[in-house]
């Protein structure tokens, strides 16, 4: 299915630099101090993490994105003060697609088609252009050790799971052995300096992006019983995270850890409004007539045993449409009282509120007809959106609560092991509100136009990874006495792209 977002418009941004023509003026250039490492030792830098560490962008992993990963950006700066070589498990091409033998295991990268994101192969096929075949085969192990141990999709407890390469092809192609762990492959390199970033993000992200179809496993201390879309128990996360840091610092390695942002601030959850439905008066009246029996029956069941529904809940379940713009979609909400004990037709549905988050992919589904040609089957109006299209307010709170608990464990590890900490949670919050300044740019989390988040709505652009690298260097300065910022050694985010051309193959 094509991933297109039809209401997005291409925005052309132009920047001009003004120079003075007055040659008579004189200025004294600021003399910056030389770059120093402080107490940090960068001779063997190892990065351990998930998709952000790998350089994943635009819904895929590909060479150009990997070369602009934040660890690679950092390693280039570290090289100026004693840093050694930095190796990455590069893909074989820039398609983003990956095979395992003959079977596809990763999709082509997203490109901007003029109105919204679209998979590269679909875009080229629409043009009648040849689609380049993927050349990366994850069944072929690279038979080497890499400084960048960033594995897309990895949750916290996956980092210590023996044989994780058999479950995740990104790690499988780079694992040192069939029974290797991500942590072991990183720690065995005996790093002098490490970054441990975005650990905890995937522990809530798959639950969130799936619309909360998984289970909040808080209270379940056995990850072997978790499903792919579940939230990791905070106690499990805390124990795993502490163990990871303890092993990485066992030989006195220094490092930077990062806290976990609220993933619900990402454009994957903020781009599609909860109330996108326009209706004329006749259609609104017809829809309201169809819901009249449901509304009346729900109100009649207030306080009736065995459910004993409250008036507040009954009012929240009322469905009403008006002529004009801004009608909220109808959604399923499994946290509502089960009224099917009275009547199977009384399903747990209501209209969305501003506290609910509609996932990005719903943009191509809302307003379609379940039965083509039948306006009484419009999804999101006559037919409620299923759980996978919506992160309800209750599910949002589960994500935030788990994230807060993860961050408490990360802060504790910072204090225990004396490491630098990057507050990516606050940085993302700023980007999603006022925007963050980087050089000549104000970067926001707006999809396509914001510059920070890539076309998949979750992962960063290369410019965003440059910002991430700068924030890490600032944290190193604060903890280890280096002077990346004072010496002018932060990178210029404007030197890094926000998207890649379809011709990049």
What do you see in this structure?
The structure is a single chain. The chain is α/β, with parallel strands linked by helices and 505 residues long. It folds into two domains: 45-86 and 149-165 and 179-269 and 394-495, SGNH hydrolase (Rossmann fold, 3-Layer(aba) Sandwich); 275-351 and 357-391, no CATH class. Helix content is 28%, strand content 11%. It contains 14 helices and 17 strands. The chain has helices at residues 51-54, 63-67, 70-78, 120-127, 169-172, 182-187, 201-209, 234-248, 267-270, 281-300, 311-316, 393-417, 424-431, 462-480, and strands spanning 45-49, 98-100, 103-106, 110-112, 117-119, 148-150, 193-197, 254-258, 277-279, 324-327, 330-332, 349-351, 357-358, 390-391, 420-422, 436-438, 441-443. It has a five-stranded parallel sheet, sandwiched between helices. Strands 2-3 form a two-stranded antiparallel sheet. Strands 4-5 form a two-stranded antiparallel sheet. Helix 3 (70-78) packs across helix 14 (462-480). The radius of gyration is 25 Å and the shape is globular.
Strand order of the largest sheet: 6-1-7-8-15
Number of domains: 2
Secondary-structure content class: alpha/beta
Helix count from the secondary structure assignment? 14
Total DSSP E strands: 17
The largest pleated sheet is described as: 5 strands, parallel
Q: How widely separated are the two ends? A: 22 Å
Strand content: 5-15%
What is the overall shape? globular
Mean pLDDT: 94
CATH superfamily of the largest domain: SGNH hydrolase
**Residue share in helix:** 25-40%
CATH topology name of the largest domain: Rossmann fold
Q: What is the gyration radius calculated from CA atoms?
A: 25 Å
**Poorly predicted residue ranges:** 1-26
What is the architecture of the largest domain at the second tier of CATH?
3-Layer(aba) Sandwich
Q: What's the CATH C level of the largest domain?
A: Alpha Beta
